[in-house]
Specification:
Chain A has nine helices and no strands. Chain A is mainly α and about 210 residues long. The N terminus and C terminus of chain A are likely disordered. Chain B binds a DNA duplex (21 and 21 nucleotides) through helix 3.
Chain lengths: ~210, ~210, ~210, ~210
DNA sequence: CATGAATGAGACTTCATTCAT
DNA sequence: CATGAATGAAGTCTCATTCAT
C-alpha cells in the first residue's frame, strides 16, 4: 500500500504497539477498535500485528498491563515515604484526579475494568489484582496512621481502604459521565475532608452503632 | 425472570421482550448477546424482535428504561415520606444494596452506564439524566435535613449528594468485581456512619470544639 | 395502531390502492418500495393489501395496467380522427412529452419497462404488448398517410413506426437522466421536422429535383 | 466471459472481479445478484469480495466504469480519424449495434442507466457524464461535417447529436425488449438514412418551421 | 375486511485470524 | 519481519408473506 520509502514508524515492536493500541481502544472502545484500525494507526498491516501478539485479547492485555504498571508506579513513586498518613491519602487522590483529567487512558481503564467483569476473565483477574494491591496500599497507609496515633484505632483499616477506593472511583465515573457539569475536584475534596476528619477523630470511647 | 408459566407465546409483546432481553444482556453483555439469542430465549424468531423494536439498540434502550424506571420507583416509593433525613439516606443505600445483590440486572445497568459513556450517546444521555435525578433526589433529602436542623448547614447539599452517589456506586463496582471477597455491606455501612455522622456534626445547636 | 375513529381513507379497494402504489413506486422504485410503505401511505396494514392482491407483483401489475390503459386512452382519444397523418404524428409526440414532463408516473413506467426486461417476465410481456400496440397504431397512421398520398410509399411503415417510437423514447430517457440540461422539446421537435419531412419527401406525385 | 484458462485463483484482483461481477449483474440484475453469487462465480468467499470492494455498490460502480471505458475506447478508437463525417456517424452506430447484440453487458448497462436515475445517485452521475461525453463526441463530428461543407449549417449540431443518441438508444431498448421480433439493424439503418440525408441536404434557403 | 403478530429466508457486512510469499 | 489476499463464522437487518382473531 505504501510505496517506496516509508519511514519505519516503529522501532521496538511490542512496546510501541501497545501504546498505539491503547490510544485506539481509549478513543473507540475495545470492541469497536478493529485490528485493522490499530494496524493503520501503526502504519502496518494486520498481519504484522499478529506477528507480535497472538490475539487481539493479548494485545489488549499487554496494553492494559503497561498502563496499570505506569499508574501504580506513579502512585507509589510520588507518595513514598509517607511521613504523614493523612497527607498521603490526599496525595493519592490528587494523583488519581490527575490521571483522570489529563488523558482518556485512565478513563478507558476504568471503563474497561467494569466491562471486563463479565466479558474477559483474564483481564478481570488482572484488574481484581490491581485493585487488591491498591486497597492493600491504602490499608497500609491507614494502619501506619493508626500506629502513629494520628488515626483512630477503632475502625477496620481494611474497610476504610475500601470506602476510600470506592468513593474516588465513584466520583471519577460520575465525572466521566458528565465532564462538563460534574465537579470532580470539589466532590473528592469534600469526601477527603470528611474521610480524613473521620479517621483523625479520636474518640475510642464513642462507639458508632450499626 | 420470566414469571411463572409463560404460555409458549408472549402476551405483552414489548414488555416481556425487554425483560428477556435484559436477562440476556446481563448474562452475556450487550455485544455478546445476539438478537438470535434473545429471540431464542423468547421462543420467537429474529424477525419478531424486529417487529417490536427497530434496532438492537432500541431494544437495549427500552430494556434499560424499564429497569431504570423500576429502580427509581423502588427508591422513591420506599422512602417517602422521609420523616428523618438521616434515616432516609440509610434507606436509599439499603435499596441500592438490595438491587445490587439480588439479581445481575443492577450490575448490568451499572456496567452499561460506564460502557455507554463512549459507546452509545443516547443511552449515555439517559444515564446522565437518571444520575442527575438521583443526585437531585439526594440533594433534596439533604436540604430537608438542613432545614430541619438535623444536618449542618455549612456544606453544599449538592456536593454532598455527589459524594454519596459516588461512594455507593464505587463500592458496588468493587463488589461486582470481586463478589466473593469484597464486603459490600460493611463498606457501605462504614461509609454511611462516617457520612451521616459528618452531616449531623457541627450544626448550630450542638457546640463542637476542635 | 389507529385508535377509535379513523376516517376510512379508501372506498373502492383495488383501484385506490393501485393509485397509491404507483405513486410510491414512482417515488422510490419498485424494489425499494416495501409493502409496508404502501400500506402506510394507504392508511392500512400490510395484511389488508394482501386481501386485495395476491402478491406484490400483482399489485405492481395492476398498477401498471391502470397507467398503461390511461396512457393509451389519452393517445387515441386526443388523436382521433387523424385527418392529417403528419399532424397526427406531431400530436402523439406532444401527448408523450406531456406525460413525460407532468408527473413522475410516466418516467417510472419507462424505467420499469426497461427494468422489467430481465426481471419480471409477466410485466415484460405486458410492456411488449403495449409497445406492439403503440407501434401498430403509429404504423396505421403512417399507412394512412401513404394511402392518402401525403407520405411516400417507398418506406416500410412498420420500420418507420419503430424509428419514431425509438426516437421519442430515447429522447425521453435522456431527459429523465438530466432534466435540468437536456432540451427534450427541442430534440423531439427537431426529430419530428426531419422525420415528417422525410416521410413527405420524394413521393411519386411530388416531383423533386436533386 | 473470463478469458481462456483461469488458474483457479484470480491474479488481477479487482479487474477480474469486475468482469465476473458484471457478468452476473447482466444475467440476473443488480438487486437479484447477491454478493454470494459473485463470490461463488469467482471461486472465492464473500469476504474476499469485501477485501477488494468496500461495498456491493462500489463493485457495481467499478464494473460499470470498466465497461464504459471499454465502450468509449471502442467508439473513439475505431472512428478516428473521421475523414468523412457521414461515414463516421454510420460507423458509430455500427459499433453500438455490435455491442448491443454481441453480449448482454451493453444491455445491462443501458438498463442500469435508466434504473440508476432514481436509484443510485453516484452511478447516475457517471452515466450522465458518459452520455454528455458521447453527445459531445457526436456534436464534434457533426460540426466537422458542417465546417467541411458536407453537412448543412442551419441546424444546431448539439440538438442533432441529441436526436442521434436518442434514436439509437431508443431502438436498442425496443430490441432488448423484444429481440426475437424487433428489427434493430433495419430500424437504425432507416434512421441513419433519414438522418444523414437530412444533414446532407443543403438548402439553407428552405427553412424548416417548428 | 382488516389487524397485529410472527415467520423465515436471505441479504449485506464486519472482523479476527491465517498463510504463502 | 511484513504484506496482501483470503477465509469463515457470525451478526444485524429487511421484507414478502401468512394467519388467527
Amino acid at each position: 500500500m505504501a510505496d517506496a520509502a516509508r519511514p519505519a514508524r516503529l522501532e521496538n515492536g511490542r512496546r510501541d504497539l501497545t501504546n498505539i493500541a491503547i490510544d485506539c481502544f481509549a478513543r473507540y472502545g475495545y470492541k469497536a477498535t478493529s485490528i485493522a484500525r490499530i494496524a493503520e494507526a501503526a502504519g502496518l498491516t494486520k498481519g504484522a500485528i499478529y506477528y507480535h501478539f497472538r490475539d487481539k485479547e493479548e494485545l489488549l492485555f499487554a496494553a492494559v498491563s503497561d498502563r496499570l504498571t505506569q499508574f501504580e508506579r506513579s502512585v507509589t513513586a510520588q507518595i513514598l515515604p509517607p511521613a504523614d498518613a493523612g497527607r498521603a491519602l490526599r496525595e493519592i487522590a490528587r494523583v488519581c484526579l490527575d490521571h483522570a483529567t489529563k488523558s482518556n487512558h485512565r478513563r478507558f481503564i476504568v471503563t474497561l475494568m467494569v466491562e471486563a467483569i463479565d466479558t474477559n476473565a483474564r483481564l478481570a483477574e488482572q484488574f481484581r489484582a490491581m485493585m487488591h494491591r491498591f486497597r492493600g496500599f491504602l490499608r497500609e497507609i491507614i494502619e501506619l496512621g493508626q500506629r502513629e496515633g494520628s488515626f483512630r484505632g477503632d475502625v477496620s483499616a481494611s474497610v476504610a481502604a475500601d470506602v476510600y477506593a470506592g468513593a474516588v472511583m465513584g466520583a471519577e465515573i460520575q465525572y466521566y459521565q458528565d465532564p462538563e457539569s460534574f465537579d470532580l475536584e470539589g466532590t473528592v475534596n469534600t469526601f477527603l475532608d470528611q474521610y480524613v476528619g473521620w479517621l483523625q477523630r479520636d474518640h475510642p470511647q464513642r462507639a458508632e452503632r450499626r
